Each structure stands twice: as C-alpha cells, then as structure tokens.
Amino acid sequence: MTPLLEVENLRVRFGSRKAGPVVDGISFTLSRGECLALVGESGSGKSVTARTLVGLTGAGSLVEKDRLRFDGEDAARFSERTWRRVRGSRIGFVMQDALSSLDSLRPVGREIAEPLRLHESLTRAQREQRVLELLDSVGVPEPEFRSGQYPHELSGGLRQRALIASAIACDPELVIADEPTTALDATVAAQVIALLNQLKTSNRALLMISHDLAVVSTLADRVAVMRAGTIVEEGSAAQVLRDPQHPYTRELLAAVPSAATRHSRLSPGPPLAVRDRSAVRPRERPAPGTVLIEAEGLRKSFKGRDGRARAAVDDVSFVLAAGETLGIVGESGSGKTTTARIVLGLDTPDSGTVRLRGRPWLDLTAAERRAERRHLQVIYQDPLGSFDPRYTVHRVLVEALRVAGIERGAQLRARLRELLELVQLPADLLDRRPIELSGGQRQRVAIARALAPDPEVIVCDEPVSALDVSVQARILDLLADLQRELGLAYLFISHDLGVIHHLSDRVLVMKDGAVVESGPADEVFAHPTDPYTKALLNAVPRLAIVGAQDD
Amino acid sequence: MRAKLLAERIGWRMIAGVGVLWGAATAAFFTLHGTAGDAALSTVAGQGADPTQAVLDQVRRDYGLDLPLWRQYVDYLGQLLHGDLGESYQQRLPVAQAIEAQLGQTVQLAAGAIVIALVLAVGVGVLTAKRRRWVRATTTGVELLLASTPTFVIGLVLLIVFSIGLHLFPVSGQDGLRSLVLPTFTLALPVTAILSQVLRSELEDVLEQPFILTARARGMRDVAVRFRHALRHAAIQLVTMSGYIIGGLLGGTVITESLFNRQGIGQLMLVATTNKDIPLVVGVVIFCALVYVVVNLVVDILYTVIDPRVVTR
After folding, report:
1. B215 in contact with A at a CB cutoff of 8 Å?
2. A419-464 pLDDT, tens per residue?
3. Across the strands, what pairs with A510?
4. What is the structure's pLDDT at A465?
5. Fewer CB in a 10 Å sphere around the end CB: N or C, chain A?
C-alpha cells in the first residue's frame, strides 16, 4: 500500500535565498492507521513543516522539495485552488491553545460547521445535526448548549475538543496536530491525548508535532526528532525513546525532570563553581532549618463574574526553612500564584498571617516592607514582561543593586561581575536589551536580578514553564547550584509534577485553593493518599524508557 | 443576564450623555457671554440701524440681558429643560426651527460621507493589509496625502478636475444628487484615509493570530478569511475611530458647505458666530454635542454586537 504522505528533501526558507533554511532537507513517510510524531524544541522547524504540509507556510517563504505526495497525488504541483479543496476536507489541522485558535467572536458550533459549509453540500439543518454529532463524538457534553457558546465560555479541555471537532468535521484522512496539549493542564491533557488516540483509525493517519517526549511516547508509533531544521533520528517510538542513537535525542531525554532525576543533573556541562566570592559582603547565613517563612491560615476570595465570591486561596498554611525547596503544585486556578502573591505582600489575604524571618510581614508599613523585601525575591514565568523593554541588562542589574544598597563604583562593578558569573552569562550581554536575548538568557538575567540583594528566599512562579526542555534543564540545574552555593530557600510553584518532584524537598498539592496533600516530596509522590493527587500523578504521561537517563 | 448588563451600561451612558450636554451648554453659554461683546448691540445692529440707548435698553429688558449673568444662565437652563433652545437674536425665530431648517442638507452630506468613507476604508483596508510591500507603500502614501491635505484643498482639486475640467458635476449649489457628489467626497476622503489606516494596522495584527491560520487550514479562501473572520476582530478599533470622526464631521461641514456654496448646519454656525447670535450658537453647540453623545452611545452598543465578551466579561 502506498503511504498517505511522502515527503522527500523538504527545504523551507524565509526571506531571501541567502537566509538560512528553517527546514533543511527532511524526508519522511506516513501511512494510514499510523501516528508519526515530529519532536523538537522551538526553532527546530517542526511547526513550519506542519504548515508546509497544508500549503500554508506563510508569507515570504520559499519551499523546495524533491517529492511531496499526498495519497498518491503530486502535492508539489497542487495549485492554491486544489490546496483549498484538500485543506479541511482531507487534511485536518489542530493547533495548540484553542482559545486563540478558534475565532473568539463566533460560537464554537459555527466554527465546527465552517469546514462542512466549505466542502460539503449539506442543508443548514443537516450541518447543525452534524455539528452536534461531532461535539458528542469528541466527548463534549450537552452539545446543543455548547455549540452556541463562545470559546471563552468553555473550559480549556472542552475548547480543545471543539477545535479537534472542527478539524475532523469532514472526516479527513490526515490529521496534523501541532502541540495539541501544550496549553492544557495535566489531567485535561491526558483526556485530550486519549481522544487523539481514538482519531487514529485504520483509514486515517496522525501527524503529531510536539516538544514533549512524554506526550509523544503515549501516542506515536514512530518518532522523528528534529533539530535546527533536520531530522537527527527517526525510528519506532519504542526504539527512539528506549535506545536513542543520536546524542541530541539522549540529551533531550535526559533533560526531562522526573522522580528519577532527583539530586542529579539534567543538562550536560559542569556545575557552577564560583571562583571568587570576595564581592559578597560576608553575611551570616541562617542555619539550615531556620524557619524563614511561616504562612498560617491564608484565605483570599475574589468576586466572580456572577458576583459570588470564590475562594482562590482557602486555608493554606506552610513553613519554608532556610536552604530547602518547598514545591507548590497544582493545575491552573488552584490558587498557587495567589498564594505566592500573598507571601510576596502583593495581595492582602482576607485572613491569615505570614511571618518572614519570625516577624509579621503583612502588617508592616510600605517603608518597613521595602527594607525587608531584600530577603525575599521573585522570578516569574515570563521574564520579558518583568523587564522594562528599554533597559539594557546592565541597567536592569544596576537598578536592582542600587535598590539593594550597593551604590558605588568599584563595589558595584565587582558585584555585577559576580552576579553574571553566578548565572553564567557572558559580560558582553550587558549592553543588550531583554528582547535581544533568548528565553534562557532572559531567565538568567531575571535570576541575577533576584540575587542582587543577596536574598534568603526566592519565590519561583513557574520559572521554567515557557522554556524548551533542554533550556529548562539548564535553568533547573542552575537553580540547584545556586541553592547549594548560596544556601537559598525556594518557594517553587509549578504545574509540572516532574519539575516539582525533581527539585522539591517538600510539596504542597493544591486544588481549588486548598491544600489537598503535603509532605516530603518522595513520600507524597510514592504514596499519595488524596484522590486528586493520585489523579494528577496518573495523568502525567510517563516516558516508557529505561536506562536513557544514566548518562 | 447579558441584556440586563447591557441595559445597565446604556443607562449609565445616557446619564453621562446628559452631563455632557449640560457641560457643552454651560461652556458655550459662558464663553459667548464673556467674549461676544454687547449682545444687545449685535441683535439690533443686524438690521442696519443705529440704535439709540432707549432701544438698546428695551432689547436688554426683552431678552433678559440686564439680569446678572448667573440669573440669565439659570433661566437658560430652565428653558433648555423644557426643550426650548431659545430664539435667535437675528433670525427672529426659534433656534430649534433654525437648526431644523438646515438639518436635512447637512445630514445628507454627512451621512453620505460616512457611508462612502466606511465602504472605501473597509474595502481598501481589508484588501491591502499584509500585502506586498509596494501595495502597502502606495496605499499608505495616498492615505497620508489625503489625511494631511486641508479639506478645502481637496475640495478645490475635486472641483478643478471633475467640475471645471471634466464637467461631470456642478461647481456649486444643491439641486439633486449630482451636486452632492463632490462635497460628499471632499468630506469623505480624509476620513477614509484615517479609517483605512486604522483598520489596516489592526488587521495586520489580527491576521497574525492563530485562528486565522485555523480558518485557512479549513480550506477557506483568503478574501473570505479576511472578510468573514478578520474584519470583525478589527472592527472594534474602526468603530471607535468612526465614533470620534462622525462626531467631528459636523465641524468639517463648515468648510465644505462654504466651498460648495451649500446651505447647512455648518453655514448656520458660521453666520451665527460672526453675528454673535448667542442663542443660535449655543443651540448649534448643544446640537453637535447631542450628535456626539448619540453616536457614542451607538458605538457602545456596537461594541457589544461585535464582541460578545464586552458585556459578559
């Protein structure tokens, strides 16, 4: 049987012929009943490949290929007209984040009906009937009601299902899914993966684009690992994930944080070794075990859209001691970030207290709080948004040092050098602006800024969630090194169980504002007692691999 | 729920609108009384007479001009609350009637200009967004030229080309549709230029959104994607901008009406101002403010029609 899709030596450039290729000569085939996953980090060319396969590479692109065949036809010669007939009817396209991938000003039912309107001659009533069947088939309850709702009125999971329904409306033979679960919470993502698995019928092929090896391992028959526009390794999922041949695949696999990676490094490269710490004023570190933060009975509610108060944080208590990491894990809306904001003094709780280094922290006046704030710093998921875009890195750091009371020349320069060394950034980055840095570099600058006043506690709010897995690995290693070198305590917030398990000493599992389970990380994850923790652990797609992490 | 929120929103807008009208009336009243010189003199002077002191006193008493200013203001507000805009000093007829007499002409002109401007702006904006560089460069160049050229220059150029050169349309006057074409375009072209720029820059953001790619991936043709998906998202900005411009369009008619020798609100305002016909000027100001308030109310309702999230969010 001929494959449904044959790609040979596909090359894509943007701009002039001289610009470097984004996709640099990749080849693969895909048969009906099969799922191929293209795995890679950002910039690897996987999404561009996906778009090229539906003839939508984008403006200013230059696509070359030796062969592109779809169902035996020469797709390389498809006219725009032919492409339009194929798109939506024979190839369905699912993108990540249904909130932005569905037209926000239309009821989802109309979006699902659109491919039917374009490709099939149905009456309006037949179309409506078909939309309801589709919604039902992708597991959306109450289809009549849901089809009239707008994307923002649906939960993330239902939205993604609706988006999938619109992609399969005309029963396409090929479904391309570009990061279909990336924007979703773990439990919801698990359900969507199950749904995608159902789409893989004998007559249909699934091309999955993902950065997440674990997600891929549960779905794909074959895996192609992409890096810088080329496929570095391709093979059956079992072979690639269990016995990776290419060093890059091995690095990727080793970079995934999990229970197994606790107390070990995720990235290649030597650990941080601080040569000269003379610039740091010798300051007494609190002895390990000294309680730095003590939160008790925190409660905070917000008024919902319907005017009723909803508890965002519901009776949360914890302590954070010097030199340890307390992980807070939960899905979106569980109250993790609000808890962090209360600890930081950015939100006032309705009730409850926070003590910082033994002193009540929330009742302080603004001036007193400023003085204490140097002990408590924060890094966020999106460092770009926390920098003034006009500031250079130099100015960002100098400002932080001035606030910390280091004003003068020699000392300032020495401390600046030291901060750069701590976060392992070259000094020539100082003149750049945040927008000119890579995601990992930005997060390093954010960490340097947090380190500037020599704090004892750093609140980390999803600090690695926006990063590629290999970059995430380096940042997590850096955070571990800094903790060791500087005796820092982390309040580490993440939705990612793997990340939390990798680096937390103790964990709080949050759901709907309340702590459902807490304790030492190993214990909680090995013997969860709360049903929600169990569900959360079950939802995590696990890499079915042995030995890959020995390197 | 939605209807209730919407009604609430409109209610507040209307209350605010009344405030705007009151503010406009007050500002106009005090500005004019403070600067217009002797209202009594200008009232009588219109008839070419050299009034005696006795006549002036008589006029002052008749119009209440001998009362203290605050008293005149309170009286005027009282009148306004009864819907009475007062009587023109010079035309000797109720201000409302004077405005009404001129309204039709101006509405024709302004409404025509708005429709033409919107149709042109939507067409040009939607079809030129995210196109080849030369398409964009040409259209932005033309738009910049139109938006920055004074109205009377545009009017003159149109006159020279289409009326004096090609004899397609009459030079002036107001008989029939043919005489409306050039003034309407004179008023519409700069507005078109601004609106299509706003729309294009907004569309270029929208066309980058993932849902546009999704729509294309369903097999929709480019033009359909632009009109059926993208336009509505960009329309919020367009509507906002249109609100401001339509409100200001009445002022724009002054020049156009003079240039093409047409009757209308613009002309009425011009004559009233030069003659210091205070009740008439204040009347026109209130009328313009009313148009502004109504247009903005419509804009506000349009927001909720365009974007269902505006109210529920």
Report:
1. yes
2. 898 898 888 888 888 888 888 899 999 999 999 988 999 999 988 8
3. A515
4. 84
5. N
User: What's the mean pLDDT when you consider all of chain A?
Assistant: 87
CB B89 within 8 Å of CB B279? yes
Determine whether the interchain pair B232/A104 forms a contact, defined as Cβ–Cβ distance below 8 Å: no
The yes-or-no verdict on residue B125 having pLDDT over 70 is yes
B87 secondary structure, DSSP code: B
Kindly tell me if the per-residue pLDDT of B46 is higher than 80.
Answer: no
Answer positive or negative: Cα dihedral of A209, A214, A218, A221: positive
Q: Which residues contact B120 (CB under 8 A, 6 or more apart)?
A: B188, B192, B196
Measured CA to CA, the distance from residue B309 to residue A153 in angstroms comes to 9
CB B139 within 8 Å of CB B196 = yes
**Averaged over A323-333, what is the pLDDT?**
90
pLDDT at residue A446, rounded to an integer: 93
Task: For A103-115, write each residue's pLDDT tens digit.
Answer: 999 999 999 999 9
Number of domains chain A contains: 1
Count the residues in chain B: 313
Question: Nearest C-alpha of chain A: how many angstroms from B230?
Answer: 9
* B221–A101 CB contact, under 8 Å: no
**Complete edge-to-edge strand list for the sheet that includes strand A222-227:** A91-94, A174-178, A205-210, A35-40, A222-227, A230-236
CATH of the domain at A470: 3.40.50.300
Asked if B4 is an interface residue toward chain A (Cβ–Cβ < 8 A), one would say: no
Closest Cα in chain A, distance from residue B37 (Å): 54
| Helix/strand number for chain A, H first, E second | 21, 21
Do the chains contact at B218 and A114, CB–CB below 8 Å?
yes
B177 compared with B160, residue with greater pLDDT: B160
Question: Residue A93 — very low, low, confident or very high, per pLDDT cuts 50/70/90?
Answer: very high
* Closest among A233, A225, A191 to A208, alpha carbons compared: A225
Q: What is the mean pLDDT of residues A90-104?
A: 89
Q: Look at residue A143 and tell me if it is in a domain.
A: no
pLDDT at residue B3, rounded to an integer: 76
The model's pLDDT over B132-157, given as tens digits with 9 standing for 90+, comes to: 888 888 989 999 998 888 888 888 88
C-alpha B163/C-alpha B186 separation (Å) is 13
Rounded to two decimals, the ipTM of the complex is: 0.79
In a domain, A338, yes or no: yes
- Would you call A88 and B220 a contact, using CB atoms and an 8 Å cutoff? yes
In our burial notation (b when 16+ CB lie closer than 10 A, e otherwise), range A521-551 reads beebbeebeeebbeebbebbbebebeebbee
Do you know the residue count of chain A?
Answer: 551
Beta bridge partners of B30: none
Range of the domain at A384: 291-550
- Report the candidate in A101, A84, A53, A92 with the shortest Cα–Cα distance to residue B221: A84
